[in-house]
Write a structure and sequence with these properties.
This protein is α/β, with parallel strands linked by helices. It contains 17 helices and 11 strands.
């Protein structure tokens, strides 16, 4: 099976350009270790999940590190470094005193960034690995011959992509992705809800509990479920706090932790200095629709469920987010909404460039309110028929 990823070239070229530590962040099971072993097959891999390795690294002693590392130099990968009490200190000792090409991986950017910000200041470059893009999914299923970033490019062009004759059933592929998501395991286990439900139950909370980032698993899980039901909707922190019988600070803190653990993200409004526009309230989306469906235990037929539009909207926005990061395209992602409820699902901005996209699982029209206020914007409607 072909398992190329969009990040391949960037990671392969990293040490040809930089001496800094390569930091690869992403959720568990997003394929970080598989990717690195394919690109750096001769590297020495230190898995922090392994107790003797963790004990040696926790010594923070240069002589202990010398005995742990191979003498021939080369590339060293410390896998899941966030499980150390002080990841930055461990990486700094190797970087400064035992010169190696160092790669560190982790699935909690909150913990890594917090504990490495001082130790590795100016010494690391971050890369993010998301679950598969739709193009990677098609490529790994031998449906498409090469990787592309068609979805983002089409939106930037104003949604002018015309439906094309294809050798595969695009709608069937989209339905599968909307239901079961794009984690790499879904290539080998298509339609496996048992895997996804176990992923939510164990792997998602594994790091959060081990790192003591959450103090109430029940509240955290119930909050995730409530957010899953509100995919694509404005977050009402007060309402969530009331339903969970906790304070708003707890709700906001847990959402921040979920965001930094690559479970979900908040999309903030585009504000063009207009009083009518809502300024602060974000919307919530999940990095993977399969995980979102597993949280609410709903894998029913996509054509029969009332949240099909929200799932498609989530899918398109996440695809843009992934491509924007992988291409270093430099767009900021927003939504737009007025107090009169005129709305645009996705707004991309870069300097003076403005791109608006209405995302509809069926047919739809673009907001005239937006085009009248931003006549310079490129705008289009993205549907099941023209997104790819």
């Amino acid at each position: 099976m072909k398992i190329n990823r969009h990040l391949d070239t960037q990671l392969q070229q990293h040490f040809k350009t930089y001496k800094e530590v390569l930091t690869l962040l992403g959720s568990r099971q997003s394929g970080k270790t598989t990717l690195l072993k394919r690109l750096f097959p001769d590297a020495q891999y230190l898995l922090v999940d392994n107790e003797p390795v963790r004990k040696a690294l926790e010594s923070f002693d240069v002589n202990t590190y010398k005995s742990l590392l191979r003498s021939d130099g080369g590339v060293v990968v410390i896998d899941e470094i966030h499980l150390l009490s002080n990841p930055g200190r461990a990486a700094k000792i190797i970087y400064d005193q035992l010169p190696r090409h160092l790669i560190i991986t982790g699935s909690s950017s909150l913990h890594i960034r917090h504990t490495t910000s001082e130790s590795l200041a100016g010494r690391k470059i971050d890369y993010l690995l998301f679950p598969l893009t739709f193009s990677e999914f098609l490529f790994q299923n031998d449906v498409e011959p090469h990787l592309n970033t068609t979805i983002l490019e089409n939106i930037v062009a104003g949604g002018r992509q015309q439906p094309q004759a294809r050798l595969f059933d695009l709608r069937a592929m989209v339905r599968q992705v909307l239901l079961y998501g794009l984690y790499p395991a879904m290539v080998n286990y298509p339609g496996d809800r048992i895997y996804l439900e176990n992923f939510v139950d164990s792997l998602i909370f594994k790091d959060l509990l081990e790192l003591q980032l959450i103090d109430n698993r029940r509240v955290a899980l119930n909050l995730l479920k409530l957010l899953a039901y509100q995919t694509g909707s404005l977050i009402n922190y007060a309402e969530l706090a009331a339903r969970l019988q906790v304070d708003q600070r707890t709700v906001k803190r847990y959402i921040e932790i979920f965001e930094q653990s690559f479970i979900l993200f908040r999309l903030y409004p585009f504000v063009g200095n207009r009083r009518q526009e809502i300024v602060k309230t974000p919307k919530i989306y999940f990095y993977d629709t399969g995980i979102r469906n597993a949280l609410i235990s709903d894998f029913s037929d996509i054509d029969l469920r009332p949240d099909a539009g929200a799932l498609f909207e989530n899918f398109i926005i996440v695809e843009c987010l992934k491509a924007n990061r992988y291409l270093n395209a430099g767009y900021s992602l927003h939504y737009w909404r007025t107090k009169q409820h005129a709305e645009v699902d996705l707004v991309l901005t870069s300097g003076k460039e403005i791109v608006g996209a209405e995302i509809k699982s069926g047919r739809g029209a673009f907001s005239r309110a937006f085009t009248s206020r931003y006549p310079e914007a490129r705008c289009g409607v993205i549907t099941m028929e023209n997104f790819y």
